[in-house]
Amino acid sequence: MIIMQGAAPAQAGLSAAACKAERHAGINACKPVLYGMSPSAQRCERIRVTHLECVCPIITPKLAALINVDRAIRLVQGCGRRVPRHFKCGSITTP
């Protein structure tokens, strides 16, 4: 689950505990999408409300190697969230 749309430093937004809870909720909500399911309305809502400052720091090179960036972008855009070109989220940069 890659979610793009401008990021602010974590200090300006959520606490570390809130970010951890948000990542956990996102992983649980979106895990079926990783296995090929289409995103439901609930999963799209999770994609739209997730804070990038919570997600991007955990995108390591190892995790990035497992992500099909083009598919992730299509899914995020399909849920109504804008994906800027050349956006850096952890170890991933969008085309």
Automatic annotation (TrEMBL):
<feature type="domain" description="Bifunctional inhibitor/plant lipid transfer protein/seed storage helical">
    <location>
        <begin position="5"/>
        <end position="89"/>
    </location>
</feature>
<dbReference type="InterPro" id="IPR016140">
    <property type="entry name" value="Bifunc_inhib/LTP/seed_store"/>
</dbReference>
<protein>
    <submittedName>
        <fullName>Bifunctional inhibitor/lipid-transfer protein/seed storage 2S albumin superfamily protein</fullName>
    </submittedName>
</protein>
<dbReference type="Pfam" id="PF14368">
    <property type="entry name" value="LTP_2"/>
</dbReference>
<dbReference type="InterPro" id="IPR036312">
    <property type="entry name" value="Bifun_inhib/LTP/seed_sf"/>
</dbReference>
